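Dear support,

We are seeing what looks like truncated structure output for some complexes. This example has two components. We would appreciate it if you could run it in full and send us the complete token output so we can diff it against ours.
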Amino acid sequence: MKEQLISLLEEAKKNLNEIISMDEAEALRVKFLGKKGEITEILRSMKDLAPEDRKTMGQIANDTKAEIERLINERKEVLKAAEKRARLEAETIDVTEPAVEAKLGASHLVSKTIDEITEIFMNMGFSVAEGPEVETVYYNFDALNAGPNHPSRDMTDTFYIDDKTILRTQTSPIQVRTLLKEPLPIRIIAPGRVFRCDTPDATHSPMFHQLEGLVVDEGITMADLKGTLDIFAKKMFGPSTKTKFRPHHFPFTEPSAEMDVTCFKCGGKGCRICKGSGWIEILGCGMVHPNVLKVGNVDTEKYTGFAFGMGLERVAMLKHEIDDLRYLYENDVRFIEQFK
Amino acid sequence: MLVPVSWLKEYTNVNTDVQEFVDRMVISGSNLEVIEYWGEGIEGVVIGKIVSIEKHPHADKLSVCMIDVGRGEPVQIVTGASNIFEGAFVPVCLDGSHIPGPLHGQPKTEEGVTIHDGELRGVMSHGMLCSFTELGFPDKAAPMASKDGIWILEGEWTPGADLVEALQLKDAVVDFEITPNRPDCLSMLGMAREASATFGEELRYPETQCRKVSPELSSDYIKVDIKRPDLCKRYCCRVIKDIKIEQSPWWLQRRLILSGQRPINNIVDITNYVMLEYGQPMHAFDIRTIAGNHIIVDTASEGEKFTTLDGTERILSDTMLTIRDEEGASAIAGVMGGLDSEIRPDTNMVLVESANFLGDSIRRTSKDLKLRTESSGRFEKGIDPNLAKDACDRFCYLVELLGAGTVLTGDVDVYPNVEEPVVTKIRVSRLNKVMGINISGEQMCKYLNALEIKTEMDGDIIVCTAPTVRQDLSIEEDYVEEVARMYGYDKLPVSIPKSSNTARFLGLQGERLLAKNVLKALGMDEVQTYSFVSPKALDKVLVPVDSYRRQQVKILNPLGDETSVMRTMLLPNIMDVLYTNYSRSNENVKIFELGNTFFDNHKMDDGALPEEKDILCMAAYGDGENFFVMKGRVEELLRDFGIKDFEFRTQKEDPSYHPGRCADIYAGDKYIGTIGQVHPDVCENYGVECEVYAAELEFKDICAMADHELIFKPLPKFPAMTRDFAMVVKEAVKVGDLEKEIKASAGPLLESVKLFDVYRGVPILPGEKSVAFTLAYRAADRTLTENEVNDINTKVLMNLKDKYNAVLREM
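Here is the complete output from our reference environment:
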């Protein structure tokens, strides 16, 4: 019997070396250790042995059983790891195959520009105002100190609905509407659509966008105007941007200025974008004309203010080196999606 | 305003180089358009004198010239020009010389043209005679006599002399942008005034006193009546006799050319010269043509015919101011002279007019006649009437200087209301406060005096008297600008406003941002389209003729029919955009626009504006797009606006949409939009040959209903119990109605109901369908029992059977 047990152990070892799957390992366990397994058979036959032999043989038989069990389990662990490896290997994919598209939509470039500028000014305490796109002649011209013969009133320049109503030619009427509606001090920007009788070409569009700004409070100075717009320029076009204020003329500001920024392409050295000058004209601005403040029922002795306005298409086109304004209103998604 | 720097130096010193001059002028308020450097790219071109001209032996249109170029023997040059004559001085390009070009009839090139000896039809040509434009100069300034041929140089020149040096062609011409408030700067003197103030240099006025005048009086020859003093502020004129019409000397021609004016003859040139110098338009009449020697400034009679000196017959109206004699019009005041009173080669006696007409009147006349001239443009912008006499005298001085005639004594000057200077009191403290600086009143006076503004200081007050040329100075703020620009905007300090404001959205900007972010996250691209559309746009999307969308706001003066009415909906624009993308083979296009629509509310007569309504329109075509995908986007958007009780109601009557695939969207009882497959006929109208799904939402109304308050609901602690069942119902029974019934019957323990299958076909009878739902039940405070859930579920099924004849299927 002892020889029998030894040979079973040897047989089990041999069998275990030959098998390659978990199923085979299980079959071996049944063969040796199952209810009708060979070791089980031997243990069952112990009862026929003499009592003194039974103890010795029992010990040997149990040891053998334990050893086979251990060997099977050991082999199972190895096989299990191998099978997992094989499965993972089989699951290999070509990671260079294309992705399943997960795509965010894109803002229209004008919206994106408005959002960028709005964030900059809101961080400086500016609220965001709006006004009607179909506007009265009064708010668009009269209230903004544009004389009755101001050429921009011509039907060759302005779209008329009737003799008192037009499509606003600028976002500036929002200045007056805000002065009449909001309590002082005022600090607002107002982006929006404006309309002028220009046939579409590379630099003109009958509809475009402006962004207006207005600050009215006691003690507002030209220095405040310069400082505020200088911060805007640095945040919008980069921290090394410099600004230059040149005297200019607008009916609704006095004094008036235009602000140039150092070219964001060449940094001021001169290039194609800035036409060699190193500077790019970005916006018009000035101290609010007392006639405008008066229309807004503001005490011009006590309060002063500054205002500014810029063409958003122009800013966006310069910043992104777009050479034709018509792309913006053609709405080809291949264009739109370039400005996520 | 073109400013030749060499000419400007006659009135003030310019001691810097051109670039620095311009930079400082820009900072003081004269903005730069461009600097043109004249005479660049001309090398080796000499002055030649034509010795002889012979016909080319083999070509009718060519001549063979012998030209003295100062090399002893004349050189032979072949030319095709016909305006040359023996003894004329001309520019000669000898072998190897270089000019900017373009050569006659050829395109302009960057690098210019190098001229070489060559043979023309068998005759040797040692170079080329060249025209004004071939030297790179603008055609509009080409001297009249040289306009379509070789440039015939005025005066006597040394043959062989370098052309650029002899004619002083090298010069910088600065084009300044003049803003509408500064018409005084549309003159050399105006710019000189700015330059002298900017650089602290003296301003020198031109000579206006004739040395020797005829004892005859101008007033012996002319009488002036202003019938419309409201339209003519001043009429000043003088008479000159013994006129000799000839070419102007080169120095004068040169200044005109650099300023963009074509030299014509001495008298016309002097009128232009004085106009450029003072900004005062001048006009010269042949005095023979003035009937009764009587100038009458009056409006034309309605329908009067008048031929202007450009040879065009024009019909005048009774609003147009004219210069008349006792028989009729001689000129349209301030716009253009008449053909009949034009200066001719045999003109012997001239009346020179230096008048001041009202800008608004000139603007209207010029607009009505569609005739804009240098003169009308200047009057429109406004001219100081006090200039008229100086300009008139300057004209006479130049006539004498050029020997073009003999000036008569005195003038006839009708000036009923003399324009007085405007006096403004300004406060030193206020100016400093607005600028954010602290400079002395004396310093301010210095700046203002440099601009010829007279000042008197009295403590904090400065009494300022502006020269009458400066029509833009009337209030304290105007002087803030004068002082600030002389101080230098660049030197003003930098600060930020001290007040503290809290930033917020005063309109729907925050909501718009939210909607855009949601739709972008859903993969949709934002578009922007014109607010105005074609009146046919509504027809293209099949909007009925009686729809409220036909209440369009119309533009009186549109660019064209395509942009002539304000939009009342966004779908047509969105379809246009889809077509653009479809026609360019862009696949899977998902877009939206958030923008205004405009409705004529018939209140505009009362001064009310049209109603403006924000609309959100989205649309998509391509893989995976269907009604329910679009519906999912709408639902997500509504949920993000905190709108919960929305529903989709079948809509079969909206002609823009597929009758079987369209729904109106309601929140409670309020209509908030429409969703559907765009009607195939609409797609066909736009040339989009695929299914398009769209939704139009009343954004303003949605914002009004939005609820952005988010209150925490505890996560469930107890398990949910689910029940699945399938029922057979008639086709006409709507899933939405079944869901509503399920929710109503199940009560508060029902957590969710989800449709998971709709099946048609065997064994279901035709006209019926099987719909399958999963219901989840849950209580917040306990685990539900089987019996509890079964009871509710049974009730649900019974109610569905009663109401919709829904028959439970075996699962």
